[in-house]
Design brief:
single chain; 409 residues; alpha+beta; 7-stranded antiparallel beta sheet; 6-stranded mixed beta sheet; 19 strands; 27% strand; DNA-binding
Length: 409
DNA sequence: ATGTCC
């Protein structure tokens, strides 16, 4: 077996952990053991090899539930995930000076704080949403109106259309990568931006209030849940599904716009897009059928990999990434890891490493190398090779990618 | 992760 089985002394609180040969912090284990105690967990919690302590729920966990949903398990970055596209370009088509490409990407896509020089960007989004964005928003607007009518607290000061097709900050990034045959890929990582955050936060607080009202005691406040059949259960399901759609559209629009702007920039020869390796969430909840039963599956830092389904497992700034094909492993509820997983906290990484370390670790990658991105240093993450080895019964590797340009939010 | 406030 490729997984370890954990449970309490009564044989309850079952966990199947794909953590052989990778670090697994005791704090993360303690956290996930609490979640596994919840009475509405269906069968067991599956842990992916990138497991680490998270806020609310353990990152790298697959939590199937029946009759209840835990909003803090999905978290605030609802629908966060990856998208990658293979282009007709090869390494030879790239200019010697990759900084031109990095600048073109930074000018094309609103990212991070207001660091962009693009006339149509402002802090966190668009000054004036481009026509294509307005059009994409039309498909989201009707459901959005219902969501904020039900939950006015979810409304953001700035309209979510202004952030559709924008990257965000933290670990969200856009990369140009080369695969094993030197083909160029465009890959990106982003989520549901401000609106998803607000939706997530408001329902996490609502669930905590509901638990107090019903005097339900929990091993951890962040395990507050909505029981099926209660008012907020349905509202949350609708809202979280909408935020996931928004996140997916956000990634799609960003990719479309990037391709268009890279073509316009004339830095690269004429190119087409060949292959899309899905646009997959790794922070989400979905109704799925497992072992013949309909259940809710929350993947917190995990990717769904049904048999033949493609997924993306990104490594850190200086490491490889993988396009994978699912093996449909039932024991994992058809899942794999969402990355390498942090080996140390951002604070610890900032304390341990210097800008010089970061420059060395990201050699050959056209990216920011200042003090602001030290917490993203590859050494702060688990070894991606070990992580891939620990889940070789969950996925096959289809493509191995190495970034040459990276834009961090 | 985000937005807001320090």
């Amino acid at each position: 077996m490729n997984y370890n089985v954990l449970s309490d002394e009564k044989g309850k609180g079952l966990i199947k952990a794909w953590t052989k040969g990778v670090p697994f912090e005791p704090e993360a284990e303690k956290q996930v053991r609490k979640a596994a105690q919840m009475p509405f967990i269906y069968k067991w919690i599956a842990l992916m090899p990138d497991v680490h302590l998270g806020k609310g729920a353990t990152i790298g966990s697959v939590i199937p539930t029946k009759g209840a949903i835990i909003p803090a398990a999905v978290g605030v970055d609802i629908g966060c995930g990856m998208m990658a596209v293979q282009t007709s370009l090869t390494a030879n088509d790239l200019p010697d000076d990759l900084s031109k490409i990095r600048l073109a990407i930074e000018m094309a896509c609103p990212h991070g704080d207001f660091s962009s020089r693009a006339a149509n960007h402002k802090k966190g989004g668009w000054k004036e949403a481009p026509a294509a964005i307005e059009k994409a928003w039309e498909g989201l607007d009707e459901a959005y109106q219902k969501i904020i009518a039900k939950n006015p607290q979810a409304e953001t000061r700035r309209h979510p259309m202004q952030q559709l097709g924008s990257l965000g900050g933290g670990n969200h990034f856009i990369e140009l990568c080369l695969d094993e045959a030197n083909r160029v890929w465009i890959m990106l990582h982003s989520g549901s931006r401000g609106i998803g955050n607000r939706i997530g936060m408001s329902y996490i607080n609502q669930a905590k209030k509901d638990m107090e009202k019903w005097m339900i005691n929990l091993p951890d406040k962040d395990l507050a849940y909505f029981p099926e059949g209660t008012e907020h259960f349905d509202d949350y399901c609708d809202a979280v599904q909408w935020a996931q759609d928004y996140a997916k559209t956000n990634r799609f629009m960003m990719m479309e716009n990037l391709i268009q702007e890279l073509r316009k920039s004339e830095i690269l020869p004429t190119f087409t897009t060949n292959k899309m390796a899905v646009n997959c969430h790794h922070n989400y909840v979905e109704k799925e059928n497992h072992f013949g039963e309909n259940v809710l599956v929350t993947r917190k830092g995990a990717v769904r990999t049904r048999e033949g389904e493609l997924g993306i497992i990104p490594g850190s700034m200086g490491a490889k990434s993988f396009i994978v094909r699912g093996k449909g492993n039932q024991e994992s509820f058809c899942s794999c890891s969402h990355g390498a997983g942090r080996a140390m906290s951002r604070t610890a990484a900032r304390k341990m490493y210097s800008v010089e370390d970061q420059i060395k670790a990201t050699e050959g990658v056209e990216c920011r190398k200042d003090s602001g991105v030290i917490d993203e240093i590859p050494m702060a993450y688990k070894d991606i090779e070990d992580v891939m080895a620990a889940q070789n019964d969950l996925v096959d590797i289809v493509h191995t990618l190495k970034q040459v340009v990276c834009v961090k939010g």
